[in-house]
From TrEMBL:
The keyword DNA damage does not apply. Coiled coil: none annotated. It catalyses: ATP + protein L-histidine = ADP + protein N-phospho-L-histidine. The keyword Transferase applies. SMART domains: GAF, HATPase_c, HisKA. Keywords: Kinase, Phosphoprotein, Transferase, Two-component regulatory system. It comes from Pseudomonas reinekei. This is histidine kinase. Its EC number is 2.7.13.3. The lineage of its organism: Bacteria, Pseudomonadati, Pseudomonadota, Gammaproteobacteria, Pseudomonadales.
Length: 397
């Protein structure tokens, strides 16, 4: 039975589509009736591919005693061995290999990989003499051996790349599953915190205690937003995108107004100026659009200047719904712009601030899920402006 080590070598040679053609060409060029690719180590000679017209008896996986061959010598000096008439040759007429196997003609070319490792030989044999004096024969077979070596190197690099990619993909899958489970399991204790805060509020009138309860409620609200962002991120990565449920919505403007009011109530120090003019009959997931707007407004509150208002507009334009949020403050650094809609981009860009850097990523994914876009411009004079666009309705509606 062929050892597992040589099974891999045999499979590697078998997977090179050119090998059968090469062996056929070797026979045609030399006039010899047996050609093979052999794996040659310090202890073994193993046939990996064979084209046999003389019934020599070797098949892939078959072995010869290494010392009975010339290949162990070729492995040492790494030079071709060629003779066309052993019985008249000054050296090989006395060599044991031709006598052992009844050979008259023989050619063997070393197969050496790019890193210098000796793989084996490309060889041909026959029991009758052959005219091998033509230099083009040795040159051509040397090129064939080099082609086999290059193919083996390519296979090795490909297998290494596949293994690395598999490891990276598996690590990413486990990481994202961990995030999803973690986000889900955090909901239960967070709900308990909120319920406890509500209960405590009904049991006390002490101003200091009510202030602490309010702080607990606000913190739990922010934690809830973070958890939802983490879950959306995990759903998007594991499921091929953030899921949405579109339907005809007649009160999208009201939904956007409530979203603005919630953000304003949570950030009383922010000055948000809004202009909302959205038609009825918009085909969308209104809750997801609300989430998109909330993320954009939250980003503007966090990073915008408190000295100037945040400007929110929502309107229809050329059969599209257009939401824009503009804030003043330092412009976004050019090197951060390509990362802005990528998850965790804040940490990658060395930015500090609240959150995980998922808000803009999720907003962009929501826009994409609506067949729309989310873009940004940022200059000193005009400020930072995020613009989300998506079709108001599908054409067939």
């Amino acid at each position: 039975m062929t050892s597992p080590q040589f099974s891999l070598d045999i499979e590697a040679i078998r997977s090179i589509d050119a090998v059968p053609v090469i062996l056929s060409m070797v026979k045609h060029l030399t006039g010899m009736r047996f050609a093979a690719v052999a794996r040659v180590t310090e202890q073994n000679w193993v046939a990996c591919a064979v084209d046999d017209s003389i019934e020599f008896g070797l098949k892939p996986g078959g072995e010869l005693v290494l010392e009975s061959t010339i290949c162990h010598e070729i492995r040492q000096h790494r030079s071709p061995v060629i003779f066309g008439h052993a019985s008249t040759h000054p050296v090989f007429s006395r060599h044991h290999t031709p006598k052992t196997y009844g050979l008259e003609s023989y050619i063997s070319i070393p197969i050496i990989k790019a890193n210098g490792d000796f793989f084996g030989t490309l060889c041909a044999i026959d029991s009758v003499p052959a005219n091998l004096d033509e230099p083009a024969i040795a040159q051509t077979l040397t090129l064939f051996a080099q082609l086999i070596a290059m193919s083996l190197d390519t296979q090795r690099r490909l297998e290494a790349t596949k293994a690395e990619l598999k490891s990276v993909n598996e690590l990413g899958r486990l990481r994202e599953q961990f995030i999803a489970v973690l986000g889900h399991d955090l909901r239960t204790p967070l709900s308990a915190i909120r319920m406890s805060a509500d209960l405590l509020e009904t049991k006390t009138e002490d101003k200091r205690s009510l202030s602490l309860i309010g702080a607990i409620r606000n913190s739990s609200t922010r934690m809830g937003v973070l958890i939802e962002n983490v879950l959306d991120f995990a759903r998007g990565r594991l499921g091929g995108g953030i899921p949405i449920q579109r339907k005809l919505v007649d009160d999208l403007e009201r939904t956007l107004r409530l979203t603005f009011e919630e953000v304003q109530a949570s950030n009383p120090h922010a000055n948000i100026v809004h202009s909302l003019d959205v038609p009825k009959g918009v085909y969308c997931d209104s809750l997801r659009i609300s989430q998109l707007l909330s993320n954009l407004l939250g980003n503007a509150v966090t990073h915008g200047s408190t000295a100037t208002p945040i400007i929110l507009t929502a309107r229809s334009e050329n059969d599209e719904i257009v939401l824009s949020v503009t804030n003043q403050g330092p412009p976004i650094a050019p090197d951060l712009m390509p990362l802005l809609f990528e998850p965790f981009s804040r940490s990658e860009a060395g930015q500090r601030g609240e959150g995980l850097g998922l808000g803009l990523y999720i907003a962009a994914q929501i826009a994409t899920a609506h067949n729309g876009t989310l873009s940004v411009s940022s200059t000193i004079t005009t400020g930072t402006c995020f613009v989300a666009r998506f079709p108001a309705r599908f054409k067939w509606l």
